[in-house]
UniProtKB/TrEMBL annotation:
Native organism: Photobacterium indicum
Cited Gene3D superfamilies: 1.10.150.130, Integrase, DNA-binding domain (3.30.160.390), Intergrase catalytic core (1.10.443.10)
Keywords assigned: DNA integration, DNA recombination, DNA-binding
GO molecular function, one term: DNA binding
The protein, known as: Integrase
Amino acid sequence: MNITDAFLRNAVGKPYSGAPQIAYGKGLSIRISPKGKITWVLRYNFNGAPARVKLGEYPAMKIKEAQDQRDEYKALVSKGIDPRSDHIKLGVNSPKTISALIEYYVEHSLMETNKQWQSINSLLQRSVVPHIGDYKAGDIELSDYVRMFQIERERAGAKHATRLLYRLKSVLNYGIRHGFLKQNHLNHLKGRDVGEISKPVKRKLTEVEIGAMWVCIDTLPYHETMKNLLKLTMIFGSRISELRLSEKSHFDFDKMVWTVPVINNKMGSKLEAEITRPIPKMAESIIRQQIDIAPDFKYMFPRYYIVADKPIDQKTPYRPSLVLGQMMSGLGYTETRNHDMRRTARNAWEQLRFPPYVSETMLGHKVHKGVMAHYVDYDYLEEQRECYDIWCEYIQKKVSDFLSNQRHISQLGSAS
């Protein structure tokens, strides 16, 4: 039997009568109780004798985390260290208070796995530490947490309290997986118990709105760097961070290819994969204009308020995005943000009948999963190139359609 996320989700917490232990691989297995309690166990040989150690419990410890813990423990065994011994325990150096646990989590996990770690750390420091930071992590009761969420809800709103719950859950689950805590009182709390769950607004543009969006970008009262960033986001359907962090060396004008390295790929650390996109002529013109703005700089989109050869700050596009939405709304169209361009592009590509695998590759999504991922490593580069050319022609046609309506020309000017 294969151990998958789907199997674990369906089995946890439910009556179970199957095999009490199921092997996963390389000594890792799960133990399932009749009541559906799932425990990760590692079996190994130490000094010629069989041994086993408990790693953690599902769902606090997911499959990937169990694999990582297995590999860490097996590395210890290879060095002659028994994972059950006191040699690997942190003892007095382990984080005891909530503040210390948060700091440890940020330093040893969040900074390495999440590019937004600073804002998340700021959230925890501002909304958790003042309330319970000095408490011993193992002594806090559920009622203490609930009271904290109530205070934060009154201070900053219901959605804020819900976001805080999910972030703090991650911290406590990390503490459990690393042996600092024995239980997470928050695992049974849901977002609606402490606040309000945000419902994502799914905006996509109609055909004429695509033309209006391009013209609005072109007339934004911001630096050309910002306009070029938004235009290319619209053309490529990329995440804005992929462009914001890009270097000029990532754009190959001989092969007409833009490569997003693993470090700039949102899913790169998990997939260990770069994104490769062809450069259509419409995008090439904009990219070359952008290079000319700061020809000696390393980064494609450098900071322009205080000029520096560093990527523009992740918060810099926020205000232009708001203004862009206001411009669209003022014209009677859908209020649009920069991320809505990805959804708009994907829906337009569907309408243009682009092959789904190609469209998903253009977005930078992983299209081959499971067994297929081990055998298929194809970037659909030429197929992408053909589709991007069609998409650019489509954008230009919609700009022309939009500008043919004389009511808007005087308000927005012409598109480039």
